[in-house]
Specification:
By secondary structure, the protein is α/β, with parallel strands linked by helices. It contains eight helices and seven strands. Helix 3 (70-77) crosses helix 7 (164-182). The model has no long low-confidence stretch (mean pLDDT 91). This is Uridine kinase.
Length: 194
């Protein structure tokens, strides 16, 4: 995909900081798109910092077998939604540093790391369910990557695709809730078909 920044981003003015979200359901191409966007912004010498929300999920025992329905665990418990609102989204414009937990999948641990923020330029935040009511107000601009479920599912690795119950009960029910109740295609500033 060739990116035309003028079509997908607001006008970036010198001396200002823009919080831009790249939203989309699982396997819609968010990480690939963000990598391309970073490359284009770097060519224009825009100060940049990127957050991938999957780096900030909680440990497995906090999001699996909690007694809640699978889809609810994925939508509500995968991240500490309120904590991230307070410690990431409310502070991301400070132009200083943030200390956040980063998840290590192999060790199932979270380790705190400090991130330097630009005072001007762009902060990209990439992840699923970004337009949930707790986080949406903090973005200046949201791009929603729209991709059909069957196409996204085909991008999963063959081993993962064998666990259809997990897709039906956890991921797809949460996605259906998000599409129905949050309506991300409507509230996004830009929708791109991937």
């Amino acid at each position: 995909m060739v990116l035309d920044l003028c079509k997908i981003l607001p006008s970036l003015r010198s001396g200002q900081l823009y919080i831009i979200g790249v939203d989309g359901l699982s396997r819609s191409g968010k990480t690939t798109f963000v990598n391309q966007l970073e490359s284009e912004l770097n060519k224009k010498r825009v100060d940049l910092c990127t957050f991938h929300m999957d780096n900030h999920i909680v440990k497995k025992n906090e999001r699996y077998d909690t007694g809640f329905e699978d889809w609810y665990e994925y939508y509500q418990l995968q991240w500490e939604v309120e904590w991230l609102k307070e410690h990431l989204f409310e502070k991301v414009r400070c132009g200083c540093q943030l200390t956040l937990p980063f998840y290590d999948n192999e060790a199932d641990e979270r380790n705190y790391q400090t991130v330097d923020l630009p005072q001007e330029g762009v902060i990209l935040i990439e992840g699923v369910f970004l337009q949930r009511k707790e986080w949406r107000p903090y973005f200046d601009h949201i791009i929603f990557l729209d991709c059909a479920r069957n196409r996204r599912f085909a991008r999963e690795d063959p081993f993962a695709r064998k666990n259809m119950d997990k897709f039906r009960n956890r991921y797809w029910k949460a996605e259906d809730y998000y599409l129905r109740d949050v309506k991300p295609r409507i509230s996004a500033n830009c929708v791109l078909n991937t």
